[in-house]
Amino acid sequence: MSTATEALEYNVEKIREDFPILKREVNGYPLVYFDNAATSQTPQQVIDTIVEYYSNYNANIHRGVHALSQEATDKYEQARHIIQKHFNAEKAHEIIFTSGTTHGINLVANGFASLLKKGDEIIVSALEHHSNIVPWQILAEKTGAILKVIPMNQEGELIYPAFEELLSENTKLVFVNHVSNALGTVNPIEKIIAKAHEYDAAVLIDGAQAAPHIKADVQALDVDFYVVSAHKMCGPTGIGMLYGKEKWLNKLPPYQGGGEMIATVTFEKTTYADLPHKFEAGTPNICGGIAFGAALDYMNALGFEKIAAYEEELLHYATKKLLEIDGMEIYGVSKEKTAVISFNINGMHPYDIGTILDKLGIAVRTGHHCAQPIMDFYKIPGTVRASFSFYNTKEEIDAFIKAVIKAKTMLS
Amino acid sequence: MSKSIQEIQEEIIDEFSMFDDWMQRYEYMIELGKSLPLIDEKYKIEENLIKGCQSKVWVHAELNGEKLEFTADSDAIITKGIVAILIRAFSGHHPSDILEADTQFIDEIGLKEHLSPTRANGLVSMIKQLKMYAIAYQTQLK
């Protein structure tokens, strides 16, 4: 296919029209939103779904006999099927609605508390977000399991051979992110999963940063647990999903008790509901779940391959332009990375750069990105992180580069 | 007679009123950061670190007669400028004057956004810390 045809097929200006927020100004400048790794913006189609829910069929689900409850239940369960199809789960009940990635990880960590014993080993990677570290530390404390860490190299990649050495017959669980939030590195999860399975260890993949860019196929990956947040992929906040293989979800005890998750309750004995309800206590985020489905429909209509190709173009363009700036240091230079650039200039504090960029209407993230071990590895207080999405443009990157140069001049 | 906190704040407002855009204000603030009375290295310790900042800010207080004097430092230039402005206004006064003083002038010199408690620069924590020192030393003076 020629570049001209591809360009015609990917009309970013038309896509931008779907996102009302992209029309606004910040501090007198057109908004340039490069904080997509923190949260993505919401297309009108998803906003409409939310409005439609509250305007037309807001009701509690699964219990009501009335029409609204039935409609809401249908839509909510349809959303579960959309998610199932998107991640290619074998069964719909392997998709558990959560409040987000952090909730999914805690649910699994909590469940493993009853499966682990003293001396068991669990493996984390050096590239994790705090939310994929702390729940496991709590688990290790509770059970006496030993937490081991896969080290990283200067390029911001995991050192795979070191992972192989950490594995043993005591390894029960491995949890790694698909993509690093601080650096954008895509981890070799296929290899990690296959190798861990040789030792009968379960693998949880934190897909929060991968999901907006890469369509994960949980069956092809043979992953045991995969967790994501909707708000990173054009959906609302407060909703996410945990995929778990049926055999694992049956093994784990319920996380929270309450309505929805029971079969029968007496004071002598309560029996739990089947999957997925066993893990969905209480009234869920119904509207959020339905909107999550709408977000996936929206992104799939654009096509993940096209999104990935376009974002890669943005990544290369921005990387090249940034490297032309004197004193530029980019962290995370793996060949396999998503459209995230973490950088510092000449020892300038990321907070200073971020503050000036904000004054120029540009939204980036500054700080340790909830990944302090990575910052400690590079011996820096933090970085400026620009993360791109499929609705960003090269013109926005040009404005961003100009702003970075301006910030550098002001701070020198 | 040395200037009161109120007078110094008005002086700062006057200086900032000469600028018509944010860029000049920030450039001036960065300039002011360079005049910050720097904290002695031996006080750059964990307990003098102000919580709630993305950048590191250390503040130390010492009584000189009945006047409380502050020294500080930060690893970020803009933060250093903000600290410098605060310290210029508050340092060298009686603790009870420091306790009574308000911080509206920050808003008036066009740095309102830094006053937001949700902003991760810890300006609000910095002000709180200066006032905490004032409370501590006020008790000592009594």
UniProtKB/TrEMBL annotation, chain A:
Keywords in alphabetical order:
Pyridoxal phosphate, Transferase
EC number(s)? 2.8.1.7
Extract the Pfam families matched here: Aminotran_5
- Obligatory cofactor(s): pyridoxal 5'-phosphate
Matching entries from CDD domains are given as:
SufS_like
Q: Which InterPro entries match?
A: Aminotrans_V_dom (IPR000192), Aminotrans_V_PyrdxlP_BS (IPR020578), Cys_dSase_SufS (IPR010970), Cysteine_dSase (IPR016454), PyrdxlP-dep_Trfase (IPR015424), PyrdxlP-dep_Trfase_major (IPR015421), PyrdxlP-dep_Trfase_small (IPR015422)
Instruction: Give one GO molecular function term.
Output: cysteine desulfurase activity
Q: Which reaction does it catalyse?
A: (sulfur carrier)-H + L-cysteine = (sulfur carrier)-SH + L-alanine
Every copy of the Aminotransferase class V domain together lies at: 32-400
Gene Ontology BP annotations: cysteine metabolic process
Q: Which NCBIfam families match?
A: sufS
What does it do? Catalyzes the removal of elemental sulfur and selenium atoms from L-cysteine, L-cystine, L-selenocysteine, and L-selenocystine to produce L-alanine.
Q: Which family does it belong to?
A: Belongs to the class-V pyridoxal-phosphate-dependent aminotransferase family. Csd subfamily.
What name does the UniProt record give this protein? Cysteine desulfurase
Q: From what organism does this protein derive? A: Zunongwangia atlantica 22II14-10F7
TrEMBL record, chain B:
**Coiled-coil ranges per UniProt:** none
Q: Cross-referenced Pfam families, in alphabetical order?
A: SufE (PF02657)
Supply the name of the protein: Fe-S metabolism associated domain-containing protein
Question: What family is it from?
Answer: Belongs to the SufE family.
Any idea where the Fe-S metabolism associated domain is? Answer: 14-132
- Lineage of this protein's species? Bacteria, Pseudomonadati, Bacteroidota, Flavobacteriia, Flavobacteriales
